[in-house]
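User:
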Amino acid sequence: MARWSGAWALPGGPDGAPDVDVLIPTVGRTAELATTLAGLAAQTDAAFRVVLSDQSEQGDVAARPAVAAMLRVLEAQGRSVTLLAHPERRGLAEHRQFLLEHASAPAVLYLDDDVWLEPGTVTRMLDALRTLGCGFVGSAVQGLSYLDDRRPHETAPFRPWEGPVEPEVIRRGLPGFERWSLHNAANLAHVAAELDVRPGDWVPYHVAWVGACVLYDRRTLVEAGGFDFWRDLPTGHAGEDVVAQWRVMERVGGAGIVPSGAVHLEAPTTVTDRSVDAPDVVFADPTA
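Assistant: Predicted structure:
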Protein backbone atom coordinates (compact mmCIF):
# COMPACT_ATOMS: atom_id res chain seq x y z
CA MET A 1 0.00 0.00 0.00
CA ALA A 2 1.12 3.56 -0.58
CA ARG A 3 2.87 5.59 2.08
CA TRP A 4 1.19 8.90 2.78
CA SER A 5 3.11 12.15 2.28
CA GLY A 6 4.12 12.32 5.93
CA ALA A 7 6.24 9.19 5.44
CA TRP A 8 7.78 9.90 2.05
CA ALA A 9 11.20 10.79 3.51
CA LEU A 10 11.45 7.75 5.77
CA PRO A 11 14.13 5.17 4.90
CA GLY A 12 13.27 1.74 3.53
CA GLY A 13 11.98 0.25 0.32
CA PRO A 14 8.70 -1.40 -0.67
CA ASP A 15 6.95 -3.52 1.94
CA GLY A 16 6.70 -7.12 0.71
CA ALA A 17 6.14 -8.53 -2.77
CA PRO A 18 3.58 -6.74 -4.97
CA ASP A 19 0.28 -8.32 -5.97
CA VAL A 20 0.44 -6.74 -9.41
CA ASP A 21 3.13 -5.77 -11.91
CA VAL A 22 1.85 -2.81 -13.94
CA LEU A 23 3.38 -3.15 -17.42
CA ILE A 24 3.52 0.06 -19.45
CA PRO A 25 4.90 0.16 -23.01
CA THR A 26 5.65 3.69 -24.15
CA VAL A 27 7.13 5.56 -27.07
CA GLY A 28 7.41 9.29 -27.76
CA ARG A 29 4.96 10.49 -25.13
CA THR A 30 5.47 12.79 -22.15
CA ALA A 31 2.22 14.47 -21.09
CA GLU A 32 0.13 11.36 -21.65
CA LEU A 33 2.57 9.08 -19.82
CA ALA A 34 2.84 11.50 -16.90
CA THR A 35 -0.96 11.51 -16.64
CA THR A 36 -1.01 7.71 -16.69
CA LEU A 37 1.57 7.58 -13.90
CA ALA A 38 -0.37 10.16 -11.90
CA GLY A 39 -3.40 7.89 -12.11
CA LEU A 40 -1.29 5.04 -10.75
CA ALA A 41 -0.02 7.22 -7.90
CA ALA A 42 -3.67 7.70 -6.91
CA GLN A 43 -4.10 3.92 -6.47
CA THR A 44 -3.13 4.19 -2.81
CA ASP A 45 -4.88 1.01 -1.67
CA ALA A 46 -3.15 -1.42 -4.05
CA ALA A 47 0.24 -3.16 -3.81
CA PHE A 48 1.92 -2.96 -7.20
CA ARG A 49 5.23 -2.51 -9.00
CA VAL A 50 5.63 -0.38 -12.12
CA VAL A 51 7.58 -1.73 -15.11
CA LEU A 52 8.04 0.93 -17.77
CA SER A 53 9.54 0.00 -21.15
CA ASP A 54 10.63 2.90 -23.34
CA GLN A 55 10.93 2.65 -27.13
CA SER A 56 11.45 6.34 -27.81
CA GLU A 57 14.40 7.23 -30.03
CA GLN A 58 16.44 8.84 -27.26
CA GLY A 59 15.37 6.39 -24.57
CA ASP A 60 15.01 9.29 -22.16
CA VAL A 61 11.31 9.33 -21.33
CA ALA A 62 11.97 8.72 -17.61
CA ALA A 63 14.19 11.82 -17.49
CA ARG A 64 11.54 14.21 -18.82
CA PRO A 65 10.41 16.44 -15.93
CA ALA A 66 6.72 15.54 -15.73
CA VAL A 67 7.40 11.80 -16.06
CA ALA A 68 10.36 11.91 -13.67
CA ALA A 69 8.26 13.73 -11.07
CA MET A 70 5.54 11.10 -11.13
CA LEU A 71 8.08 8.28 -10.93
CA ARG A 72 9.57 9.97 -7.86
CA VAL A 73 6.10 10.17 -6.29
CA LEU A 74 5.56 6.45 -6.87
CA GLU A 75 8.92 5.59 -5.33
CA ALA A 76 8.27 7.90 -2.36
CA GLN A 77 5.00 6.03 -1.85
CA GLY A 78 7.03 2.84 -1.48
CA ARG A 79 6.45 1.50 -5.00
CA SER A 80 9.16 -0.35 -6.85
CA VAL A 81 9.80 1.15 -10.30
CA THR A 82 11.69 -0.74 -13.01
CA LEU A 83 12.81 1.23 -16.07
CA LEU A 84 13.65 -0.65 -19.27
CA ALA A 85 15.01 0.57 -22.58
CA HIS A 86 13.82 -1.43 -25.58
CA PRO A 87 14.78 0.62 -28.64
CA GLU A 88 14.42 -2.01 -31.37
CA ARG A 89 10.83 -1.80 -32.54
CA ARG A 90 9.45 -5.16 -33.66
CA GLY A 91 5.77 -4.41 -33.17
CA LEU A 92 3.24 -4.21 -30.36
CA ALA A 93 3.11 -7.94 -29.64
CA GLU A 94 6.87 -8.23 -29.22
CA HIS A 95 6.94 -5.25 -26.86
CA ARG A 96 4.20 -6.78 -24.71
CA GLN A 97 6.05 -10.11 -24.65
CA PHE A 98 9.23 -8.28 -23.60
CA LEU A 99 7.35 -6.75 -20.68
CA LEU A 100 5.80 -10.08 -19.70
CA GLU A 101 9.25 -11.64 -19.49
CA HIS A 102 10.20 -8.99 -16.93
CA ALA A 103 7.14 -9.62 -14.75
CA SER A 104 7.09 -11.74 -11.60
CA ALA A 105 3.95 -10.77 -9.66
CA PRO A 106 0.92 -13.12 -9.59
CA ALA A 107 -1.06 -10.64 -11.71
CA VAL A 108 0.03 -8.32 -14.52
CA LEU A 109 -1.81 -5.18 -15.56
CA TYR A 110 -1.14 -4.10 -19.13
CA LEU A 111 -1.76 -0.36 -19.06
CA ASP A 112 -1.32 1.78 -22.15
CA ASP A 113 0.52 5.09 -21.79
CA ASP A 114 -2.57 7.21 -22.50
CA VAL A 115 -4.97 5.96 -19.81
CA TRP A 116 -5.91 7.65 -16.53
CA LEU A 117 -7.28 5.43 -13.75
CA GLU A 118 -9.86 6.49 -11.20
CA PRO A 119 -8.65 5.91 -7.61
CA GLY A 120 -9.53 2.37 -6.53
CA THR A 121 -9.55 0.91 -10.05
CA VAL A 122 -6.60 -1.46 -9.58
CA THR A 123 -8.01 -2.80 -6.30
CA ARG A 124 -11.41 -3.31 -7.93
CA MET A 125 -9.86 -5.18 -10.85
CA LEU A 126 -7.76 -7.38 -8.58
CA ASP A 127 -10.80 -8.17 -6.42
CA ALA A 128 -12.72 -9.15 -9.54
CA LEU A 129 -9.89 -11.33 -10.88
CA ARG A 130 -9.61 -13.20 -7.59
CA THR A 131 -13.35 -13.51 -7.05
CA LEU A 132 -14.15 -14.67 -10.58
CA GLY A 133 -11.12 -16.97 -10.84
CA CYS A 134 -10.82 -16.30 -14.59
CA GLY A 135 -7.84 -15.52 -16.79
CA PHE A 136 -8.25 -11.77 -17.11
CA VAL A 137 -10.40 -8.84 -16.09
CA GLY A 138 -10.55 -5.72 -18.22
CA SER A 139 -11.52 -2.13 -17.50
CA ALA A 140 -12.28 -0.84 -20.97
CA VAL A 141 -11.19 2.75 -21.58
CA GLN A 142 -13.83 5.43 -22.09
CA GLY A 143 -13.65 8.68 -24.03
CA LEU A 144 -15.42 11.19 -21.83
CA SER A 145 -15.81 13.66 -24.68
CA TYR A 146 -18.64 11.30 -25.72
CA LEU A 147 -20.64 11.50 -22.48
CA ASP A 148 -23.52 13.20 -24.32
CA ASP A 149 -23.35 10.71 -27.20
CA ARG A 150 -25.63 7.82 -26.22
CA ARG A 151 -25.52 4.79 -28.50
CA PRO A 152 -28.13 2.23 -27.45
CA HIS A 153 -27.53 0.20 -30.60
CA GLU A 154 -23.90 -0.28 -29.50
CA THR A 155 -24.66 -1.09 -25.85
CA ALA A 156 -27.37 -3.62 -26.79
CA PRO A 157 -24.93 -6.62 -26.65
CA PHE A 158 -24.17 -5.93 -22.96
CA ARG A 159 -24.74 -9.10 -20.93
CA PRO A 160 -23.58 -9.55 -17.33
CA TRP A 161 -22.04 -12.83 -16.31
CA GLU A 162 -24.58 -14.82 -14.31
CA GLY A 163 -22.68 -17.36 -12.24
CA PRO A 164 -19.04 -18.29 -12.82
CA VAL A 165 -17.03 -17.02 -15.78
CA GLU A 166 -16.57 -19.88 -18.23
CA PRO A 167 -14.37 -20.48 -21.29
CA GLU A 168 -15.59 -18.98 -24.56
CA VAL A 169 -14.46 -19.11 -28.17
CA ILE A 170 -14.58 -15.73 -29.92
CA ARG A 171 -13.88 -15.30 -33.62
CA ARG A 172 -14.90 -12.85 -36.27
CA GLY A 173 -18.35 -13.91 -37.43
CA LEU A 174 -19.30 -15.78 -34.24
CA PRO A 175 -22.04 -14.37 -31.96
CA GLY A 176 -19.71 -13.06 -29.25
CA PHE A 177 -17.76 -10.89 -31.68
CA GLU A 178 -20.48 -8.22 -31.86
CA ARG A 179 -19.71 -7.25 -28.25
CA TRP A 180 -16.80 -5.15 -29.59
CA SER A 181 -19.15 -2.15 -29.84
CA LEU A 182 -19.56 -2.00 -26.06
CA HIS A 183 -16.20 -0.25 -25.70
CA ASN A 184 -16.75 2.56 -28.19
CA ALA A 185 -17.04 6.21 -27.12
CA ALA A 186 -18.42 6.45 -23.54
CA ASN A 187 -20.72 3.44 -23.84
CA LEU A 188 -19.63 1.84 -20.57
CA ALA A 189 -20.26 5.04 -18.64
CA HIS A 190 -23.83 4.95 -19.92
CA VAL A 191 -24.20 1.27 -19.02
CA ALA A 192 -22.85 1.93 -15.52
CA ALA A 193 -25.31 4.77 -14.97
CA GLU A 194 -28.20 2.50 -15.93
CA LEU A 195 -27.00 -0.28 -13.60
CA ASP A 196 -26.63 2.11 -10.65
CA VAL A 197 -23.72 0.15 -9.15
CA ARG A 198 -22.78 1.08 -5.60
CA PRO A 199 -19.40 2.84 -5.15
CA GLY A 200 -16.61 0.26 -4.94
CA ASP A 201 -18.70 -2.57 -6.39
CA TRP A 202 -18.35 -4.06 -9.85
CA VAL A 203 -20.43 -6.11 -12.30
CA PRO A 204 -18.71 -8.65 -14.61
CA TYR A 205 -19.88 -8.87 -18.20
CA HIS A 206 -19.18 -10.81 -21.39
CA VAL A 207 -16.60 -9.24 -23.72
CA ALA A 208 -15.22 -9.78 -27.19
CA TRP A 209 -11.91 -8.37 -25.95
CA VAL A 210 -10.68 -5.39 -23.92
CA GLY A 211 -8.03 -2.89 -24.94
CA ALA A 212 -5.55 -0.67 -23.07
CA CYS A 213 -6.27 -1.73 -19.46
CA VAL A 214 -6.32 -5.48 -18.78
CA LEU A 215 -5.34 -7.38 -15.63
CA TYR A 216 -4.23 -10.97 -16.28
CA ASP A 217 -3.46 -13.88 -14.05
CA ARG A 218 0.18 -14.07 -15.06
CA ARG A 219 0.52 -17.85 -14.95
CA THR A 220 -2.56 -18.32 -17.10
CA LEU A 221 -1.33 -15.80 -19.66
CA VAL A 222 2.08 -17.48 -19.84
CA GLU A 223 0.54 -20.94 -20.20
CA ALA A 224 -1.62 -19.62 -23.06
CA GLY A 225 1.55 -18.50 -24.83
CA GLY A 226 1.53 -14.83 -23.86
CA PHE A 227 2.40 -12.77 -26.93
CA ASP A 228 4.84 -15.32 -28.36
CA PHE A 229 3.06 -15.13 -31.71
CA TRP A 230 4.86 -11.84 -32.41
CA ARG A 231 7.30 -13.70 -34.67
CA ASP A 232 4.43 -14.51 -37.04
CA LEU A 233 3.54 -10.85 -37.52
CA PRO A 234 5.07 -7.96 -39.42
CA THR A 235 6.14 -4.95 -37.39
CA GLY A 236 3.11 -2.99 -38.55
CA HIS A 237 0.18 -4.65 -36.83
CA ALA A 238 -2.58 -4.16 -34.30
CA GLY A 239 -4.93 -6.50 -32.45
CA GLU A 240 -2.21 -8.32 -30.49
CA ASP A 241 -4.23 -7.99 -27.28
CA VAL A 242 -7.18 -9.63 -29.04
CA VAL A 243 -5.13 -12.73 -29.83
CA ALA A 244 -3.75 -13.06 -26.30
CA GLN A 245 -7.18 -12.64 -24.74
CA TRP A 246 -8.91 -15.07 -27.08
CA ARG A 247 -6.32 -17.72 -26.23
CA VAL A 248 -6.87 -17.11 -22.51
CA MET A 249 -10.66 -17.04 -22.89
CA GLU A 250 -10.65 -20.42 -24.61
CA ARG A 251 -8.89 -21.95 -21.62
CA VAL A 252 -10.41 -20.32 -18.54
CA GLY A 253 -12.56 -17.39 -19.65
CA GLY A 254 -12.25 -13.65 -19.21
CA ALA A 255 -14.50 -10.73 -18.31
CA GLY A 256 -14.88 -6.98 -18.32
CA ILE A 257 -16.08 -5.11 -15.28
CA VAL A 258 -18.33 -2.09 -15.02
CA PRO A 259 -17.94 0.63 -13.87
CA SER A 260 -14.61 0.79 -15.62
CA GLY A 261 -12.76 3.72 -14.04
CA ALA A 262 -10.34 3.84 -17.01
CA VAL A 263 -10.33 7.02 -19.09
CA HIS A 264 -8.78 7.26 -22.54
CA LEU A 265 -6.89 10.54 -22.96
CA GLU A 266 -8.02 10.67 -26.60
CA ALA A 267 -4.55 11.66 -27.80
CA PRO A 268 -3.41 10.79 -31.34
CA THR A 269 -2.19 7.22 -31.61
CA THR A 270 1.52 6.46 -31.82
CA VAL A 271 0.73 3.27 -33.76
CA THR A 272 0.27 4.58 -37.27
CA ASP A 273 0.87 1.34 -39.18
CA ARG A 274 -2.06 -0.98 -38.52
CA SER A 275 -1.96 -2.69 -41.91
CA VAL A 276 -2.20 -6.18 -40.39
CA ASP A 277 -4.80 -7.30 -37.85
CA ALA A 278 -3.12 -9.93 -35.67
CA PRO A 279 -6.17 -12.22 -35.24
CA ASP A 280 -6.50 -12.56 -39.02
CA VAL A 281 -2.95 -13.95 -39.15
CA VAL A 282 -2.81 -16.06 -35.98
CA PHE A 283 -6.26 -17.60 -36.46
CA ALA A 284 -6.10 -17.90 -40.24
CA ASP A 285 -6.17 -21.68 -39.84
CA PRO A 286 -9.71 -22.48 -38.62
CA THR A 287 -8.33 -25.43 -36.60
CA ALA A 288 -5.90 -23.19 -34.68
